[in-house]
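Interim report to the steering committee. The following record documents the input for NAD(P)H-quinone oxidoreductase subunit 1, chloroplastic (363 residues).
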Amino acid sequence: MIIDTPEVQDINSFSRFESLQEIYGIVWMLVPIFTLVVGITIGVLVIVWLEREISAGIQQRIGPEYAGPFGILQALADGTKLLLKENLLPSRGDSPLFSIGPSMAVISILLSYSVIPFSYRLVLADLNVGVFLWIAISSIAPIGLLMSGYGSNNKYSFLGGLRAAAQSISYEIPLTLCVLSISLLSNSSSTVDIIEAQSKYGFWGWNLWRQPIGFLIFLIASLAECERLPFDLPEAEEELVAGYQTEYSGIKFGLFYVTSYLNLLVSSLFVTILYLGGWNLSIPYIDFPSLVEINNTGGIFRTTLTLFITLAKTFFFLFISITTRWTLPRLRMDQLLNFGWKFLLPISLGNLLLTTSSQLFSL
């Protein structure tokens, strides 16, 4: 069978067009992921700068001011310094576990951002089990910390890893019970559905007013999950010489540093989503949607406005977490575990039972 030359050219051009379409589809699929990673990185740099400035203000110090205007480049300078430092490996440690541990901790936290709706129609993956996917993925991070402590061949590092695992298990259960209560109230486990369920009644429809006990438990448990003071027992310098980070240097130490701030940011975002209505800004006695005509505006303006609202609520809770660090003293390990198992767990169980009963009686 003989095929004419024009037909061969048409077939070749069609195949090239199909390959270009496939490449375009792959690139377009990676653009949202790349944008999310860049945004998260900028957010972490801002949080580091804010923590240093707020901490300096609380302690009546100057804080960073020489690296760039107002010291905004200090976090970038520290990151560059960690990149250029030498990575040291313990001579008798387990090298694979020592290297995999920090990466596992960072990746597990980064995957949690995929289900967070930052704005109206600005979410990477709107899943039916979004909040529980976050809990399941974030539970992997303590395994990485335990691997890091064990692979360091250092008793202080190993104790820090054990403390991290015990602390995570203790406070993960009350946090999950609070999330389950919110899912029952919203009749959904999707983060977008939870926000939209709160928007039906405006400001007074926020889950903050419907679940005040759950809000306090979630806030305390999220601080413990982020290992922030007064719950930073895995990194207690007075007892463990920085805990599971003792043998780390260079970029691997930087990964632990970034993980703590990534976890703090994702916890503050979930406080906003679950209890403060997410991107909705409802001021009592003021019809905000009609005031700015948010329902009739273009998609770009609406997305930008709702993104700003979400970030404003998030950074408010970041401010609370930073000020708590310099307000409360560190707990002992036995106090931390007793507080989680004997206090938060029974109260969160009672809150779940009350929520379930109210939902059953309302049917």
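Residues 85-362 form one domain. The committee is asked to note this result when reviewing the revised timeline.
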